[in-house]
Request: fold
Amino acid sequence: MAILNIDAIIQRIASLQDKTGLFPAVRSNAMIGYQRADTNVFFSAITVFTLQNLRLSVSLESRKQIDQIQQRVVKAYPLFRNKDGLNTYNFWPTRPSRHFPNGYVFHRFEHFRIPDDIDDTAMVYLTTEPVRADQLWLKEKLAQHANGSQPQRIRNTYPEYRQLRAYSTWFGKNMGVDFDACALSNMLYCICYYGLPRNQHDTDSLTYLRAIVESERYVAEPFRCAPHYARTSLIIYHLARLMTAFDIPELRPIRSRLITDAKQELARATNRIEQIILTTSLLRFGETGPTIPLERIEQDFMPFNFFIAGLLTAYEQPLLRRFADRPIVQMRWQCEAHSWALVAEYLSLANANACVSE
Reply:
């Protein structure tokens, strides 16, 4: 399929929406020959969020199309709202729970039912217009589940980070506390976007993000720093998006390190979607980047995963955690619509950069 401009890409994305307003996604594990269609809110919400940020740089017709895409996606959000009616959101439908949809085994076990999370909740809030009372409620809800706010404390991070009162990925009371750099970046983006009051949890979340970059752990062990994304390139992408949207003093010191590492990762990357997100990050920082060839770019969609779920990630037992980063115990997600949105985002920034250079 030859798509050469942003307008055509947005038309393609619109054509992919199903009757519920969601974008189809796939979860897979190539090592065991597993592949299933997956119904989740995450990829639809992040696709809309990405398109929203392009809205002012596209044609009037594409703006209308983005608005229509958003309206259709938002209508599906109630399916993923907290099972008790609270204003947090789950990766999968909640009433009734449809965890691991279209599967044969995992959906039968309550153990694999996950709680609401900060990633999906942040993206739903960023693609809707929550009233101030709901924004402030979310801020308090985040504090209730942050590390140190419950008897259970984080165990699956580096010892020097275990005292940080950073936000956990999960809202569930029975789920272990979990730090994920990309999920934290998304929630901090939401907090900054709505101008919510800062507290110790925000400060410690930013401390975590700065520390994993300054220590270079996010390059050496990306799974341990962001277990649901597990790629250095994706951590760079999320941090660059956050840091260039808002001036956050705590993160200023890592800007040059992120740029250097993005260039090094780009030199090694072979998948064009990974090249695109790294180049997008560099363009956001005001750096130049290579021109990525887009002919038959869709061939690179399936080999690249933007998000993973480790079946052993939630376990805090050391023996099980030793195997949590192995591909055989991970599900990987792909979404064509979101991949096209990443391509459109790259083109928009590349075009803007070319205009500035002329």
Summary: The chain has a mean pLDDT of 90. Residues 6-357 form a domain with the Glycosyltransferase fold (CATH 1.50.10).
